Amino acid sequence: MRRPRLLDPGPGGIRAEMYRMGVDPSGIRIMEDKGRHLLVQLDTLDIRAAQILKQDMLSIGGEAALNREAAGLKVKTTPVLLMGTVHQFRTLAEKLLKQAFGLKGLARDLEELFRNLGATPSFVVAGKDLLAGGRVLVMGVVNVTEDSFYENSRYPEVEEAVAKGFQMLEEGADIIDIGGESTRPGSRPVDEELETERVLPVIRKLRVGGAKNLSVDTTRGSVARKALEEGANIINDISGMNFEPEIRKICARTGASAVLMHTRGRPETMQQRTRYGDLMGEICTSLEDSMDQAVGEGISCEKICLDPGIGFGKSPEQNVEVIARLGEIRSLGRPIMAGVSRKSFIGHFSGAAVEDRLPGSLAAVAAAVLRGANIVRVHDVAQTVQALAVTREIREAAPC
Description:
By secondary structure, the chain is of the alpha/beta class. The protein has helices spanning 10-21, 25-31, 47-59, 86-96, 103-118, 158-171, 192-208, 221-230, 246-254, 279-296, 316-324, 344-350, 358-370, 381-397, and strands spanning 37-46, 63-66, 77-85, 124-125, 128-129, 137-143, 175-179, 214-217, 234-237, 257-261, 304-307, 337-338, 375-378.
């Protein structure tokens, strides 16, 4: 008999492996959830609820980690880390429906979490789900600026910006993202009128030329409104629609789709605020709040995409951690966009200047997609499309 062999096939691969072995299909349905282990974090829970939750989890073979002061009831609340299989979590949810102290609500939240993890997210733009069939989308960056961090992405003249947009579409871009204001670390805002003058002619000419999915990278309500009138149909807001909340109503009223990003402060100062107590916890909480506010103003949930903000208020090490843990954002039930292209963290770890960061960018794109990204925002479309053709096949063979 050969030595035992470790399997790491991913959720879909567990099912495939049992089929290969000839396991009865009815048994596969029963056992599949027992082979998928999850870690579920609860930021704060009433100590009474936490004690009940721990006992319930232990009773079904799972585990729950609490603050060390919780055992002596020395704290009123505690974070909780639940550990168990999907099967155990489903059993737990059933048990919690009979409990007090808000645990019934937790049961419903767990059920929603399982639905989010098991479903392919949608991103509806102009009435069409761009992610149908499990596609990974490429958003091409067209900066109508003179000071964006990557010199070769600057197209300050309208005609060259339009030509670049059409070139990216020919190379396989699904969305063109047009920006009239640099948001690189340390950058200062440009005049609102100048930003408008930069982006509107480009949007207009791309739309007239047949471009379908056009995004405007802005935080300003007036720029968003005018861009949507010219034919843009996605608002890509680095502030998560928090700098100018009016932008939510504009987006809702026009039926536009939205990319909501996490950042800390404005570009001038964001890199001075990179200390986090719980990096992914804060990112997820911020994105959830932005999403709830957007939906509350009338933006359809299926039209929202979330971006953790690689390079925005984060150190190089934190950027890498975000990519490695990108799948945690899936619990919010929305598609994830990753903007990693040629950013400074690649130079930090490789020593490469911005113009030499294409290999590092492709590595980061592949890693992001394997960890759960549905959309990647890039400067180098043709090369990214080729890399994704391989990356997606790997992800489908052993899905995250």
